[in-house]
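STRUCTURE:
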């Protein structure tokens, strides 16, 4: 970025950091979460129990995440 261009740049990017450690301690949702689905319309989703996750293969996860984000935009 450059001060003379008001911090605008032709080269924009996002930088993501992924942790390979297990992410634990999520205990579900206290309230229902409303999600919109093309086929079913509005859905109220709620989860119970304790959940954890870990990313085994960062390149595959990143590609899937990018594809999902791209589909949401387009």
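SEQUENCE:
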């Amino acid at each position: 970025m450059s001060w003379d261009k008001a911090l605008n740049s032709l080269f924009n990017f996002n930088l993501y950091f992924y942790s390979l450690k297990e992410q634990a301690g999520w205990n579900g949702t206290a309230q229902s979460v409303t999600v919109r689905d093309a086929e079913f319309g509005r859905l109220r989703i709620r989860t119970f129990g304790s959940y954890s996750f870990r990313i085994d293969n960062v390149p595959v996860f990143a590609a899937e995440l990018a594809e999902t984000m791209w589909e949401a935009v387009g």
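REMARK: Residues 27-74 form one domain.
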